[in-house]
Structures are given as C-alpha cells and as structure tokens.
Design a protein that fits this description.
9 helices, 81% helix, single chain, mainly alpha
Length: 240
C-alpha cells in the first residue's frame, strides 16, 4: 500500500487505547457482513434466482429445482445477521467511549439495524418455506403466490431500514473521528439510495426497476463496510 493510500486509513488518532480488541472485533464484523452479503448474492445469482416480476410458474419451478441453493443462501444470512448486530452495537460502544459525539446517530443505527435484521429474518423464513413447499411443483398456486409476495414486501422494507442503518453509522463514525469525510459521503450516498427505494416499497415488491436503485445503495454500503472495517482493524492492532 502506498503512503497516499495508507493515509486514507491511518491519519486519524487511534480508536481507543484501553479496548483495542473492541475496535478489531467491530472492524472484522463489518468486513464479514460485507463478505456474507456478497456470498449470499453470488449463490442466488448462480442458481438463477427469479426477480419479483418473474411469472409465478417460473418462480415455483425455481424453488422446486434450487432447494439446496436457497438453503445455502439462508445459512449465510443466519451467519451475517448476528455480525450486523455486533457491528451496530459495537460501534455505538466505541462512539460513547470516545466522548459521545455522534451517539444519537449510532443509536439510530442500532435501532434500524435491529429492524433490518427482523425484516431479513422474515424474508428468509418465507423463502425457506417456499423451497420446502415447492418440492415437486411445476405450477404456482394462490397460497404459493401469496407467500412469494409477502417475501418480496419484506425485502422491500428491509431496504429503508438498511438505509437508515447506513446513514446512522456513517454520521456517527465521522462525528467521533473514526472515519474521514469521503467515507461519510459514501455512507450517506448508500443510505440515501436505499431510502429512496424504500419510499417505493410497493413498486419494488411488484418488480419495479426501482429495486436497482436500492441495490446500488447496498453495493456502495458494502464498500463503506469494507473500508471502515479495515480502518478499525488496523487501528485496533496499532493500539495494542
């Protein structure tokens, strides 16, 4: 890494000298969340996961044929959701130990992160249920279609919750001196895009291209997670 690149991560003072393990743990959690989300989406994309505008008979055939892929994706979600909660609560603890600047924003991130986790749980429980009930199906049914639409609606409402989480984390981390200005801008852009998509939750659940606005925001937020995670891990190591 060049000196200019290193300055992006190391020009601020260390996080805390009394609890370096906390910074390293939170940083590692942020990176792990990003890796988990990417891995989940790679698995689903490789399996040919349907969009919310896909005809219902095709959706039924997908779940009947890709039960294993759905199970792997759900398992990845079960791993990264606790890490997301670790991230938001751990960062709130670091912010308070650094004097409390940005603590109100980190509380927002904790609340929104918990709501997003609940939404992810609902969406994935329904997805697992679809995979189990689709065994042997070649055509959809009214009950199957209803569960699919509830799954879509749950995911649509996850996006604004993740957006609020991203905004809260970005503002809290910057206010307490944990990140530089470019990371605050990146986090706000990511959160803003997911919040915009959330305003059109019904359209997103019905297969609107507005979904891609939220997914762009999610992609930017994954970049924020990795950059901030590396920063915290390195600071924790230096403090030790």
């Amino acid at each position: 890494m060049s000196s200019a690149q290193g300055a992006l991560f190391l020009t601020e003072p260390p996080v805390t000298s009394d609890r370096p393990d906390r910074a390293r743990l939170v940083g590692a959690g942020a990176i792990a969340v990003a890796v988990g989300v990417v891995a989940e989406n790679v698995v689903l994309a490789a399996a040919g996961a349907p969009g919310y505008d896909t005809p219902m008979d095709e959706v039924a055939r997908y779940f009947a044929a890709q039960r294993g892929a759905v199970g792997v994706a759900a398992g990845l979600v079960a791993v990264y959701l606790p890490l997301l909660l670790l991230l938001v609560t751990g960062l709130h603890g670091i912010v308070e130990r650094r004097g409390g600047a940005g603590a109100a924003w980190s509380r927002l991130a904790v609340a929104a992160g918990a709501a997003a986790s609940a939404g992810f749980v609902l969406a994935n429980v329904l997805q697992v249920g679809l995979a189990i009930s689709a065994d042997g199906l070649t055509r959809s049914s009214p009950a199957f279609e209803l569960v699919w639409h509830v799954h879509a609606a749950a995911f649509a409402f996850v996006l604004p919750m993740l957006g609020a989480t991203a905004v809260g984390l970005a503002l809290a981390a910057h206010a307490s001196g944990l990140t530089r200005s470019w990371l605050r801008v990146l986090g706000l852009a990511a959160g803003g895009l997911m919040l915009v998509a959330g305003v059109g939750a019904l359209a997103v659940a019905d297969g609107s291209p507005l979904l891609f606005v939220g997914l762009l925001g999610l992609t930017l937020w994954l970049g924020w997670l990795v950059a901030t995670g590396v920063r915290l891990v390195r600071w924790g190591g230096r403090s030790r």
